[in-house]
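For reproducibility, we list the full input for the beta-D-galactopyranose complex.
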Amino acid sequence: MPDLNDVTRGRILFGGDYNPEQWPEEVWQDDVRLMKAAGVNSVTVGVFSWAKLEPRPGAREFGWLDRLLDLLHQHGIGVVLATPTASPPPWLGRLHPDTLPRDEHGQIVWWGSRQQFSHSSTVYRHYAAALTEDLAARYGEHPALTMWHINNEYCTYDWGDESARAFRAWLQRRYETLDALNEAWGTAFWSQRYDSWAEIIPPRRAQYLKNPTQVLDFKRFTSDALLECYLAERDIVTRHSPHLPVTTNFMPLWTGQDAWEWAQHEDIVSVDIYPDPKDPLAGQFNAMIGDMTRCQAHGPWMVMEQAAGPVNFRGINHPKPRGLNRLLSLQSVAHGADAICFFQWRQSRQGAEKFHSGMVSHAGEHGRTYQEVKELGADLARLGPAVTGTHTPAQVAVVHDWDSWWADQQGGRLSDQVRYEELIRAWHRALWEAGLATDFARPEGELGAYRVVVVPHLYLLTDAAVENLLAYVADGGSLVCGFHTGAADADDRVREGGMDGRLRELFGIRTVHEWWPLDPGETVGCGTFRGTLWSEELEAAEDAEVVASYEGGELDGLPAVLRRGQGWYISTLPEPDALRELLTTVAREAGVRPVLDGLPAGVEAVRRGDLLFLLNHGRLPVELAVPGTHRDLLGGGTVEGSITLGRYGVAVLAP
Ligand code: GAL
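The corresponding predicted structure, in tokenized form, follows.
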């Protein structure tokens, strides 16, 4: 199977989405000149070109793309060619209204933006496949082509009739009989029993709370329906160019796609990362997405998109201060990226994203953004030979799962303040600030390589996942679980006793009497720290070790944190410092050390292969002790004993 190594060949890919159809062709010459000067070696073209390629049904306008690919090839710039199927032209919706998705209220999602396609529409799939076929036949052997990019950020839902039919077919495959579906969905509640498959619809707008398992299955179905679209196009391009790897770009921690599942069908795993430059923990977010994507890829991965300056989808959109783009880009390399690309090459002057930055901003060649992009290109060129293809090792893993996230997002829960993605982030932050290298893992996945496994919050756990966690501890691993973990089974049915019995046994919990969610801003004393968000009324088993107890209030004296051997349970969300301390203690006990001891706050150390990346996420210079003698790959020369990193400074040290 072709993979990222076949494309990089010792160079880090550097470039971005290139949408030259927005510009007169004279500008293309200037584009390639600036690309060459910045060291750009890879651009993604065609992502939103459907209307240009097929201006009316069945027409093909390939001339401009021929000229573009030839031009790029002539300048030695590799092309990631996208199938343009994320944004159908207006004619498709006008001639075939059934290709347009419907929202939960039954309203049509119209053209005039992008992504207005129903994943289940036969007509959409037909037109998407036909254009993909012709594109692949024409360019599959083009010498500029290095990989295929299918669609763009698959992320749409459809509650319409064609989707309803596909949903029913999906359910029939999953449950086989209506009895099994009724049982799984608990339809005895509120008179929801289905007597015929035809009665089943997507969870559309309803009077009151919806059936949670129906909603969960609809999310599972949607992820699978989108995956079918991806696979159909992937199979076409692979038929024409079996030598080229295929990817589709994920959104980071995006709820709509089970990325674990999807990644198995990609030759290259790529992701779009847009941390808020004003977020003091932007670096932690970037690290987390890197760790997650690396584990989905089982190795080097690709930043398909990031912003060289501001985005324009937040309420307030901040530019990146000088140096931050470089820092975050090199941080992604440290976390395993072998491709650093941007949305987009040249900032648009029209359209909905004209205030979203590009590698060449409205300020042009002399603007700070392009000048910094150029410097970054030079840095990446220096690192390429030493870094590409190498491994970023970790002894700690965070367990993350889409099914559990989907089940967790619903109405009718005890607290609408519990947000899965924030919990994942809080726990990853604790590990990141503790300087512990971290992987991500699936609940049913292989855990044996880790000394410590943490489960921030998996409300839903399949039986296989429970068995996997138990086996991990039985084999000597240390497991730390966060609150409300293991409460439901695969059908979102609450487990007897409020937590899986095997897990209660593991942690030393005799009974879960009640869950006690906390109000926003409310905290609860837990001995040396304060808990937030949630607390639990637990009764410990006799031989459980109570690590911390609640103080004051209704839970006074009851266990907040407890363990039995290597199985730890934290029944609240400790404040950040306390969670970091707790996880540091577990790691130390398990023999896991930070990458580098004694680093000041805001300085990160990452090992990749035999390189040591040092990253200063702060605005003040820091001096660091680095024992031994190293080659400084970015700065040149050698480093002996210590190094100073300036604001947002990065050093990459080789033995
Ligand atoms: C991504 C998308 C790009 C662009 C970018 C802006 O979601 O793939 O086309 O819209 O965001 O940040």
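The first helix runs from residue 4 to 8. The chain has 18 helices and 26 strands. Both points were considered when choosing residues for closer inspection.
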